[in-house]
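Is this the right way to post structure tokens for a design question? Let me know if I should format differently. Anyway, here goes:
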């Protein structure tokens, strides 16, 4: 049985990692693309999406 904090933080960390990778390896150099302009912005979006997925997929 997993700790509830791990069940919440793991999707956030995975989402932030994927978002950061998308932002870092993305091809938008003009800075106008919201997801791929910087790695940290992609990490914020990815972490937020991971949090939303974790909160909506909880089982009682």
């Amino acid at each position: 049985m997993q700790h509830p904090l791990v069940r919440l933080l793991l999707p956030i960390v995975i989402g932030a990692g994927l978002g950061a990778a998308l932002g870092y390896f993305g091809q938008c150099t003009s800075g106008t693309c919201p997801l791929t302009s910087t790695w940290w912005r992609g990490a914020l979006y990815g972490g937020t999406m991971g949090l939303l997925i974790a909160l909506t997929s909880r089982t009682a």
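Format looks fine. Someone answered above. Worth noting: The CA atoms of residues 12 and 48 lie 7 Å apart. The longest helix spans residues 4-25.
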